[in-house]
Amino acid sequence: MPYSRPSTSRRCDGSGCSRRAARGEALHSRHGYADEGSYYSQKRTTVRVSAYVVSPDRRVRAAMLRVAGEADPDTRYRVTVGGRSRTVSGADLMSKELGPFPVARGEVTPVTLTPAEPAHDGEDLKAKVTSLTLTPQRDGRAGLAVR
Question: What are the mean pLDDT values of the chain's consecutive 10-residue runs (147 residues total)?
Fold first, then answer.
């Protein structure tokens, strides 16, 4: 898929940009199909939500992720930012900042949300994501557990 400039927003002040958010068309969904025992009962499912962001500040080495929307609180999700993943519950996914995750400076970083352990390839995500927001961590601490 060719890279297209996502519709992202950021907040900036005198000390630099504070966050990068992907919404609407900048969120990409991958779909699958699941059935209830026959071909005629197939329904389209969302199996992944992704966004692609670029760090607005070359001094930033890590970022915290906040996911907005709705998710099944009992489902386990895998959140991947660049090459690092975390597994969290749906309740934590929607209520906590996740990370910090390492962010490559000046490079496109994929942010992906999938089921942690899907029963089959077409299992529904059971989440409706409205935005993914990365907030830079200037001290560069990466690889810590979910807060």
Answer: 38 43 70 80 87 74 91 96 94 95 84 94 92 77 35
- Output the CA angle 53-100-28, nearest 5 degrees: 30
Query: Coil, strand, or helix at residue 56?
Result: coil
Let me know if 120 is exposed, middle or buried by CB neighbors in 10 A (0-12, 13-18, 19+): exposed
Under 8 Å between Cβ of 18 and 133? no
Q: Any idea which architecture 21-136 has in CATH? A: Sandwich (2.60)
In the sheet with 28-34, reading across from the earlier edge strand, the strands are 28-34, 43-54, 108-115, 76-81, 84-89
Q: Record the tokens describing residue 108, joined without a space.
A: 């496109």
Q: State residue 126's pLDDT score.
A: 94
**Domain ranges in the chain?**
21-136
